[in-house]
Amino acid sequence: MKEYRLLIETSDTKGLVYNISKILFEHNLNIISNAEFVDNETDEFFMRTVITGEFEEAILKKDLEKVLPINSKIKISDNTKKDIVILATKEMHCLGDLLIKHEAGELEANITAVISNHESLKGLVEKFEIPFEYISHENLPREEHEQKVIQAIKKYSFEYIVLAKYMRILTAGFVQTFPMQILNIHHSFLPAFIGANPYKQAHQRGVKIIGATSHWVTNDLDEGPIIAQDITRVDHNYSWEDMRDAGRNVEKVVLSNALDLVLKDRVFVHGNKTVIL
Amino acid sequence: MKEYRLLIETSDTKGLVYNISKILFEHNLNIISNAEFVDNETDEFFMRTVITGEFEEAILKKDLEKVLPINSKIKISDNTKKDIVILATKEMHCLGDLLIKHEAGELEANITAVISNHESLKGLVEKFEIPFEYISHENLPREEHEQKVIQAIKKYSFEYIVLAKYMRILTAGFVQTFPMQILNIHHSFLPAFIGANPYKQAHQRGVKIIGATSHWVTNDLDEGPIIAQDITRVDHNYSWEDMRDAGRNVEKVVLSNALDLVLKDRVFVHGNKTVIL
Amino acid sequence: MKEYRLLIETSDTKGLVYNISKILFEHNLNIISNAEFVDNETDEFFMRTVITGEFEEAILKKDLEKVLPINSKIKISDNTKKDIVILATKEMHCLGDLLIKHEAGELEANITAVISNHESLKGLVEKFEIPFEYISHENLPREEHEQKVIQAIKKYSFEYIVLAKYMRILTAGFVQTFPMQILNIHHSFLPAFIGANPYKQAHQRGVKIIGATSHWVTNDLDEGPIIAQDITRVDHNYSWEDMRDAGRNVEKVVLSNALDLVLKDRVFVHGNKTVIL
Amino acid sequence: MKEYRLLIETSDTKGLVYNISKILFEHNLNIISNAEFVDNETDEFFMRTVITGEFEEAILKKDLEKVLPINSKIKISDNTKKDIVILATKEMHCLGDLLIKHEAGELEANITAVISNHESLKGLVEKFEIPFEYISHENLPREEHEQKVIQAIKKYSFEYIVLAKYMRILTAGFVQTFPMQILNIHHSFLPAFIGANPYKQAHQRGVKIIGATSHWVTNDLDEGPIIAQDITRVDHNYSWEDMRDAGRNVEKVVLSNALDLVLKDRVFVHGNKTVIL
Q1: Chains adjacent to B (≥3 CB pairs closer than 8 angstroms)
Q2: Fewer CB near the last or first residue (10 Å), C or N of chain C?
Q3: Average pLDDT in the C143-169 region?
């Protein structure tokens, strides 16, 4: 059954829940589930309401705007699959996990294309009859390569861009082209081991736990709002390559879980953090 | 600041959130946080709202009753510390953990008494100037011993009874005297290893993870609604005593976390399950 | 570089490590790593030694036999990839995970065939150019179906048979055909929720954590020696289908980790338990 | 029964296990358990052997030295309780946890004294009849305060000094007085959030998991060899104070587990890392 997700972000004021639920009641909508969060430090209010019923989106929004503070954000999404484009480099584990989920019908998304700066994933992607674009970065200035990637992305339908171990640092220009649309998996428990070769760093530091972090990409490398994290235990027997291998299972599960939250419209960005409702 | 917790459990009907929030709005109350859950299988609705402001409890309840289905449960609690009585046997780890938290002012409860069927914990409890009642079960029929324990409990003020490794099986009579007021810690990952010596059972079975479960006590041994669970990893190097020792850390943390949820009025009982809001 | 794994299981006696290491020293072998375990209850001794160097297997074994108690088990394996046959039914997540790892060269095994009692996985498997055998169980007595499966398995080279969510109960006859060669993934935290529909059982019981267990298949359903387990957290918001979906990530990682231990010859069977060295 | 722990650290050479086990065999000692680790990068060899039997320590060591490379480290410890001195500041959770374990006889150590720069823990410590020394840091230069603390420590018997949330930065002079004898608990998942107020930092960064780290104290703040780490999950509902409260359970368990490893002589220092055997 078609469900709609009403997403509201506004400054907290008395009577908000009352006023919003009144409008929904007057529109004769059913509330399937409802979740709110108020950040008591910043007085920011977040609400995600799953509704069923018939309504005119423009009218509902207008009615909500009347009772909400100005500058409130209102978004209405639904439970149909969203389109995504995946960027990857050479590693198969994250990409493969999404391809299998997609094939099994377990991904709440259509993968419309996979783009890579290497050719090695072409065979895997094409097995699943998904367009693969190979855009080598060799002998190209970073910006030029990114322009080609942006053009390639724009050929396809997408709501989000998923970096499934895309091992290129993105310029501010690239990031700003797709604000809060780029989801990344970083192979460390951020903010530990920012930057290159986190498993080597982790091995060097002698940690007993390694992790992975999925986050929105912003201009600041590895500093965007965190959506999901998980960990696994290691010990002195692990070489850095063993850590990398063990980390792959964590990376693919964290990315897949974060993407699932995004696709279900459960992730609000709140400054440099996320609110998951 | 004094906060009130409005707890509502009712059957789901259209406009519930609207109607409830309308009453709160009309009473001029501030909503600090709000959480709801609808069980779509049973159409049961649960809501926990934290409010501040001045109100007459009787009038607020009456006004809420007017807009809620009959047989709705409405409870208003607040954030003052609740009294608890602890029952224990010989082991110190769960009891000690609660005593230290109590001493540190980190427990949202006053421990009004500790009751045990052994005398060995007397020294520990009395260090903290908390009444200790020793009620031996030796040479007593189970019911008679329990009557003495019930009488001892009733000498003290309590909202909940915490079984901090109280190693006696309770009769239906005992349990029914304190319905959904008795919180237990079971030293296994329920429903695995119900009954006696779960660590020996776990060792025998060769599991790679052990756990602990905190639950409400009902007539069915180890079958009451689960509030919290946690686990820790073990391997072939662990004797059953090693599992027991490792399990103690899990037991005390799980009991403490479950109790914290209970004391914050976050635990609803829903059939044989809990809803944590 | 070629490494050999010397696996010894025997009854504990004084001087075992000395006597074994003496033989290895005399054969001029390098010890890369060495792990032992003595079960002090049963006085059983387990040792896994990774060695490099040149040796005659028959002579080394004979020399070891001279210094070990009679009835000692000595096995020499190496780090070349082992062949496996996978059995599956309809679900893609475990099978898909192994296929991707295989494709990426990250599996220490060659998948020589996939056999299923349904046809739906054929498309997926054949993408990877791996033989797929469809052997329907419909209108066949259990034993007759199993005989067909056994014949199909025997067409291929295999050291282990991996049940990647093969949803058929196996007869004693089948199990005895491949003793301690069949690895299963059970979709619960065993011994909780033995039998059918563990996620429905878990949902019904209201647990706060779900898990998965990989174990050797023996005659007793879901009772074989456990190799690996892991868990994930759930709450009242999870329907049983949500638990199943969340559980899939755990299942595939647990199966993959257990298989990795098996392929590295790190798993000893010890009664109804495993010793992982 | 009295058990001895033979701890050997040396450079890896062919025949080490053979030569060591030969000596033990010739001394007619029983090996209860044996664990080795070779760091293949640095060719460093670590071995922990638990033995029973009668022997002259000086002779055994001398015999071992004959077969080991020069500059090998040989240490023989046993399973009698070791003395420790605890340093704390104001927080009760880690100290209280150790006091309860001590009282229960579950700590493999005698707490000979607790020293604090505040007076507030005096009451708690003296309940357990353990000497408490209050050494205020007010109006004292750091070095002078430390000298007083060092003098206080030296009044008591100790093998290790446990910083149970001792909130003072130590000078190099202090650390060098007790090399690899000072065990700390840091309230973050190191190397994330080094320095002051890690929970505020974690809250600010919006992490989804917080942790704690127990490590040897070296001259570099929060950079010493890590012994144990653990984590717990948080979300947007957690204020930094909620994170601190949730973190306390992790801190006390991690410190207690790390101390247990230390007391069982299972922790080897290997550069800036630990090897746990």
Answers
A1: A, C, D
A2: N
A3: 97
What does the DSSP assignment read for chain C? ---EEEEEEEE--TTHHHHHHHHHHHTT-EEEEEEEEEETTTTEEEEEEEEES---HHHHHHHHHHHSPTT-EEEEEESSPEEEEEEE-S--HHHHHHHHHHHHT-SSEEEEEEEESSSTTHHHHHHTT--EEE---TTS-HHHHHHHHHHHHHTS--SEEEESS--SPPPHHHHHHSTTTEEEEESSSTTTT-SS-HHHHHHHHT-SEEEEEEEE--SSTT-SPEEEEEEEE--TT--HHHHHHHHHHHHHHHHHHHHHHHHTT-EEEETTEEEE-
> The domain B82-276 is classified under which CATH number: 3.40.50.10860, 3.40.50.170, 1.20.1440.230, 3.10.450.50?
3.40.50.170
| Tens-place pLDDT, residues D62-84 | 999 999 999 999 999 999 999 99
| A226 contacts in chain D (CB < 8 Å) | 205-208
Check CB contact under 8 Å for B40 and A32: yes
CA closest to B92 among chain D residues: D104
Say how many residues make up chain D: 277
pLDDT, tens digit (0-9, with 9 covering 90-100), for C92-146:
999 999 999 999 999 999 999 999 999 999 999 999 999 999 999 999 999 999 9
Q: CB distance A100–C101 less than 8 Å?
A: no
Which positions in chain A touch D192 (Cβ < 8 Å)? 189-192
Q: Which CATH class is domain C3-78?
A: alpha beta
pLDDT at C233 over 90: yes
Whether A3-78 shares its CATH topology with A82-276 is answered no
What confidence category does residue B222 fall into, taking pLDDT thresholds of 50, 70 and 90?
Answer: confident
Q: In this predicted model, what pLDDT tens digit does every residue of A115-124 receive, in sequence order? A: 999 999 999 9
Domains in chain B: boundaries: 3-78, 82-276
A36–chain B Cβ distance below 8 A for any pair:
yes
